[in-house]
C-alpha cells in the first residue's frame, strides 16, 4: 500500500487538537485543506479515524493505535534527514514555536530575541503559552519545538535540560513609610501583599515555600502577570514577593526598591524541554545551545551583582 507522507503531520495535529480549525492553525494550512487531507487518510486507512462529537472529535481505536507509531516514524525520519543538513545561523530562515511560562517570557525571551537579531536575523519565533500542561503546548507531539519553564513529570519522548535556578525577593515602593533597607518577618506578615498568579508549578512552589518558612501573607490583590506588579506596588504600601531576576529588572524603576525576603525561601529550577525528534536537528541544537548560554550569562551576572552588593 502507498502512503502520502504529507498526510501524517495532519493526522498528528488532529490527534492533538481534536478540532479541524485548530489543527489548520497549528499547521499553517486552510481548514478545507485539512478536511481534505483527513478524507484522504480515511480512504487510505479505511477507518473514520475521528468521530465528531459535541465538543470536538474523538479518535477511533485505530487512530489511537496509529498515533505513537506515526510519531516514532516521523521522529526517525527527522533524525536521518536533519542530521545530514548543515546549519548556518547567519543565513538560516526558519520559524520556531516556543512555549515559555510567564517568568521565562519576562526574564529570558527578550535576551534571546536580541541575540537572534544579531547573529541569526532570519530566525523567527512564535510564542505560545505554557502553564502546567505539556500536552496543551503541542510539545508532546513535536508541533512546538521547545518548552521553557518548570518541567514536571515529562513523558518519555521529551528531553529535559536544566538551565538555571532562581530565588525570591521582595518589592515595595521606594518611599514606603515603614520599610527601610530590610523587611522583618513581623513586618512581612503585617503588610498587605500583591500576589502574582502565574499558571502552573511556580504558583504552587511559592505557596509551599511560604508555608515551609512559616510565613503568612495578607493578600490584598492577585494579578495574572508580573508586568502588573510595579504599577500596583508603586501606588500602595503593598509588598510583592517575586523571583529575584524579575526583581532585578524592576529595580531599574525609580519608584521601587528591592529587598531580600525576610527568610530564605529557597530556589526553583528553570528548564528547557524538547521532543526527541529534534535531538539531531542542527538548527534546533544550535538554538538550544544559545538559550543555555544566555541563561547562564543572566544567572552568573545576577549572582555577581548580588555578591558585589554584599
UniProtKB/TrEMBL annotation:
Record-annotated HTH lysR-type domain positions: 1-60
SUPFAM superfamilies to which the protein is assigned, alphabetical: Periplasmic binding protein-like II, Winged helix' DNA-binding domain
Keywords tagged on the record: Activator, DNA-binding, Nodulation, Transcription, Transcription regulation
Claim: Transcription regulation is one of the keywords in the record: yes
Keyword hit for DNA-binding: yes
Pfam families: HTH_1 (PF00126), LysR_substrate (PF03466)
PROSITE patterns: HTH_LYSR
Family: Belongs to the LysR transcriptional regulatory family.
Name listed for the protein in its UniProt record: LysR family transcriptional regulator
